[in-house]
Structure formats: C-alpha cells, structure tokens
Amino acid sequence: MTTDAVQLRSVTRRYGTGGMSVTALDQVSLTFPKGTFTAVMGPSGSGKSTLLQCAAGLDRPTSGLVTVGRTELTGLSETRLTLLRREHIGFVFQSFNLLPALTAEQNVALPLRLAGHRPSRARVHDVLQQVGLGGRTRHRPAEMSGGQQQRVALARALITRPDVLFGDEPTGALDSGTGREVLTLLRGMVDREGQTVIMVTHDPVAASYADRVVFLVDGRVNGELTGAGAEDIAARMTRLEARPC
Ligand code: ADP
Q1: How far, in Å, from the CA of 189 to the mean position of ligand 1?
Q2: Helix or strand or coil: residue 220?
Q3: In the list 123, 147, 189, 200, which could disulfide-bond 178, CB 3.0-4.6 Å?
Q4: CB neighbours (10 Å) of residue 6?
C-alpha cells in the first residue's frame, strides 16, 4: 500500500536542444504524502509551473519518473494519461476556466459527463455545499463574484474525488479576503477529507496554509519549511530572490 499521492524521482525537464536548451527541472525528487497540503514557491523561472505540469501528467519529463497513486506515468499513452487525469487529478487555476454558457451545477457536473457518467443531482449539490455554494447552483459564471467562481471551479475539481488536487496560483485573481476563504476551504478539505493538495503560489500568506513549503531555485529543490508562518516564508523568499545569479 502506498502512502504517497504523488512521487517525483529524479525528474528532469529540458526544453529545446543543444546550446539553446533550458533545464527547467534538474533531477527533482519529491514525495507528496496522501492527505497533506504542499505549497511550491520559488523565484520566477525557477521551474514551478513545469513541476506542476509534470506531476499532473500534462507534460512529460525528459528523464525521471512520476507516480500518481500507484500509476507510473512515464510509459502511459496519451489516451491513458488523459483518462488518469480525468479520474484521479483535479485542477484549479488562477483564471477559473469555467464555461460561461453553463450554470454552476452544469460546470461542476461536466467532468463526470465527459467521463461518460450521468452525475446525480445529489452528488453535484453535495460538492457545491462542500464549497459553501449551496444556494447559487443555477447561476452562470458572469452572475457570480470571483470568489464564487473559484468555488465552482473547486467543486468541479473535486466531483471526481481526485487523488490529488493541483492549484496553479488559485487565489492569484482574488482579493485577499476572498483568497483566504478559498484557502480555508482547501485547508478544511485536507484536514477533514484527507484530500492531497499541491499548490504553486508566490504569496507567502497563501503558502502559510500549507503543511509544507517546497522552494525551487533554478529547477532544483532548495529546501523546504514545515508548518511555517507567512513571515518566515516571506523572509526565505526574499533571500532566494536576492541571491547572486
Ligand atoms: P516558474 O513557473 O517558476 O516561473 P517555469 O516552469 O515556467 O518557471 O519555467 C522554468 C524555466 O523553463 C524558465 O527558464 C522558462 O523560461 C523555461 N521554459 C518554460 N516553459 C518553456 C517552454 N515551453 N519552452 C522553452 N522554455 C520554457
């Protein structure tokens, strides 16, 4: 039995070839235990997005292994990878990526419909309740605030009961109060439901909601902090950003 939701073993991702190549990730090894909340931070260009894309099966490493649950991604065909993402992985992005023509409940039901299931209304309503949106299920995205739209996106990501939820700056487009509400929801899902969350952020306050913060510099892991507050995280980031190139 595995207790890790996601594992990266010596993952390298290089873009381009020869003299023009860029090593976005350089032999990164990380484990993300089930039921934990990890934030990934680092200066711009340090490899955060590439890490998320490789860990989520959206991009393929040049070398190394990525395991989600018990499935090793390297050898999977595009079709198998798509199925794995659909059934085992949830995403929330900075821009909520909701379909404007669909109501909240239709947006939330979409991943199950795409997987060929007919979602029960009860399940859709349960997950909308879980994100605190019981009352606005018939509204379209344009009729909702940013915070409400991100809650719908969160419900959509959770409807498949994913093994891991990835967030790419999920509070980046929200004001700080609304952002905190969304982070509190994520924290609650980890604590109450045992959800695994991996979130890229540049915001030390957002990162302070995580159990652990992993720092990347130049595509390599440059240490981590456990249970740190926003001030300690901000101080670490300031040091990393001030380092000589
Ligand atoms: P971050 O998310 O920390 O800003 P990225 O993962 O986006 O960092 O990028 C890491 C490095 O890889 C950067 O030097 C970036 O320019 C480079 N990179 C990212 N994506 C590509 C790409 N598609 N083609 C070429 N270089 C890329």
Answers
A1: 30
A2: strand
A3: 147
A4: 23
- Amino acid of residue 77: S
Cβ proximity of 156 and 110 under 8 Å: yes
**Both structure tokens of 164:** 């891991």
pLDDT in tens, 122-145: 999 999 988 888 877 899 999 999
Indicate the top mutation candidate among 14, 48, 50, 216 to test ligand 1's pocket, ranked by most ligand atoms within 8 A of CB: 50
Assigned CATH for 4-241: 3.40.50.300
Task: Work out the pLDDT band at 17, boundaries 50, 70, 90.
Answer: confident
What is the helix (H) or strand (E) element at residue 224, kind and residue range? strand 220-226
Sign of CA dihedral 54, 186, 41, 91: positive
Kindly report, residue by residue over 28-41, the tens digit of the pLDDT. Answer: 999 999 999 999 99
Q: Beta strands 164-168 and 197-200: pairing type?
A: parallel
Say how far residue 211 (Cα) sits from the centre of its chain.
Answer: 14
Q: Pick the atom of ligand 1 nearest to 50's CA.
A: 6
- As a whole number of angstroms, the distance between CA 110 and CA 119 comes to 9
Using CA atoms, how far residue 176 sits from 93, 146, 180, 244, in Å, is 16, 12, 6, 31
pTM over 0.90: yes
